[in-house]
Design a protein that fits this description.
single chain, about 475 residues, 3 domains, nine-stranded parallel beta sheet, two-stranded antiparallel ribbon, 20 helices, ThiH/NoCL/HydG-like, 4 iron, 4 sulfur cluster binding, Aldolase_TIM, BATS_dom, S-adenosyl-L-methionine
Length: about 475
């Protein structure tokens, strides 16, 4: 059976033979200067590249052409996302899990990790702690366990999170990263008002996937890989995909990732809302050194740059798995969302000190507070954005993508970023961060191109200073 981007079957839209053919094609053309220049020119049109075209650029070995790829990635990032960086935090509800994933400390056979599941009251305390940091957007995380973490528990937790209003705090968007489930359950998540449904493939190589997932529901490659189809059939039109780089060869999973994006575009008319780019790291009984396919910082930067020019309309996410130096590099190359002040343990936010009993999914590399990260972004000239307006205004799925592709989204995103930053500065920032942020807001407000929108934004910013909250375009 030939490769079919719009097929309903995982092994046809992530076609192993097509990936191998693509790898051979990329290797054969990695020094084909004329072809690489042609592909860079095509990418500059901001219409994207196919997985095969992108693979050639990833293999490119000529320094001047690599520099052109990086420069183009920066240009495209600026064109579609400006200097905005969206902020979020993960919230771990439970680390009970029935799967046997060999790279994750949640695996069922691990007897050393402290198992924990938050009650609704504990969730309330966690959310208040996150609100007091300044967060407005969460990524809800839980292990797969039909008895400990059923869909009813997830839905109740979402209702609890949205219900909490503490001082000026509110969680305005809950993204959900839970195990692959049924169309019926995805409909329930949609009705609960989630933002993006996120699920990492870990690796697209079926044989290696099955070796990495020897037991548990997640061992079913097809069911896991087809999860986004079921989510979109259920009406969740913002989905987020990703692989865990280091589990398999990065070239194979890079191609699989772009094929998955092509599949969603071919089948539903809209690709993934976000692509996440985690790298394997140590935690509890997991040693990252045991995985031989680790990706260097140099290759990681190249992956980010080529993905940015290949899927220019898709958001890109990196977490606190990455160090400050690594995040600094890839922010300019295409990343548009980062986590800040993250705790990857269950119940880690409400405690001033991390508990002696470890319940974390991975070790955090960037351990700075949210305020320190906001201050750092301001120093780099970025606008830390806590905006959730598109989701709340119904600008999701194909509606969001059409606004991005036309450039109209800038009329919303820029002013919304400034207004949510202003809220953060008024309610949560240190004095030093506040001064830097206010100076940036004054500068960026003057750059809003539409006079009417600029006028409204200035009025709203004054209202925020006077105590009002939650303005959005």
């Amino acid at each position: 059976m030939a490769y079919q981007a719009d097929s309903l079957k995982a092994e046809e839209f992530i076609k192993h033979e097509e990936i191998l053919d693509t790898l051979r094609y990329a290797e054969a053309n990695k020094n084909n200067r004329a072809l690489i220049e042609q592909l860079i020119e095509k990418a500059a049109l901001c219409k994207g590249l196919s997985h095969r075209e992108a693979a050639v650029l990833l293999e490119c070995e000529q320094p001047d052409l690599i520099e052109r790829i990086f420069h183009l990635a920066k240009e495209i990032k600026q064109k579609f996302y400006g200097n905005r960086i969206v902020m979020f935090a993960p919230l771990y509800l439970s680390n009970y899990c029935v799967n046997g994933c060999v790279y994750c400390p949640y695996h069922a056979k691990n007897k050393t990790i402290a198992r924990k599941k938050l009650t609704q009251e504990e969730i309330r305390r966690e959310v208040i702690a996150l609100q007091d940091m300044g967060h407005k957007r969460l990524a809800l995380e839980a292990g797969e366990h039909p008895l400990q973490n059923p869909i009813e528990y997830i839905l109740e937790s979402i209702r609890t999170i949205y219900s909490i209003k503490h001082k000026n705090g509110a969680i305005r968007r809950v993204n959900v990263n839970i195990a692959a489930t049924t169309v019926e359950n995805y409909r329930k998540l949609k009705e609960a008002g989630i933002g993006t449904y996120i699920l990492f493939q870990e690796t697209y190589h079926k044989q290696n996937y099955e070796a990495l997932h020897p037991t548990g529901p997640k061992s079913n490659y097809a069911y896991h890989t087809e999860a986004m189809d079921r989510a979109m059939e259920a009406g969740i039109d913002d989905v987020g995909i990703g692989v865990l780089f280091g589990l398999n060869t990065y070239r194979y999973d890079f191609i699989g990732l772009l094929m998955h994006a092509e599949h969603l575009e071919a089948r539903f008319g809209v690709g993934p809302h976000t692509i996440s780019l985690p790298r394997i790291c140590s935690a509890d009984d997991i040693n990252a050194g045991d995985f031989p396919n680790a990706v260097s910082d140099e290759i990681f930067s190249k992956i980010v740059a080529v993905i940015r020019i290949s899927v220019p309309y898709t958001g890109m996410i990196i977490s606190t798995r990455e160090s400050q130096a690594s995040r600094d590099k890839v922010l300019e190359l295409g990343v548009s969302q980062i986590s800040g002040g993250s705790r990857t343990s269950v119940g880690g936010y409400a405690e001033k000190e991390l508990p002696e009993e470890n319940s974390a999914q991975f070790d955090v590399s960037d351990t700075r507070t949210l305020d320190e990260i906001v201050s750092w972004l301001l120093d780099l000239g970025y606008i830390p954005s806590f905006c959730t307006a598109c989701y709340r205004e119904g600008r999701t799925g194909d509606r969001f993508m059409s606004l991005v592709k036309s450039g109209q989204i800038a009329n919303c995103c820029g002013p919304n970023a400034l207004m949510t930053l202003k809220e953060y500065l008024e309610d949560y920032a240190s004095e030093d961060t506040r001064k830097k942020g206010l100076a940036l807001i004054r500068k960026e407000t003057d750059r809003i191109p539409n006079p009417k929108i600029r006028e409204i934004a200035i009025r709203n910013l004054k209202e925020i200073a006077a105590g009002k909250r939650d303005f959005r375009f």
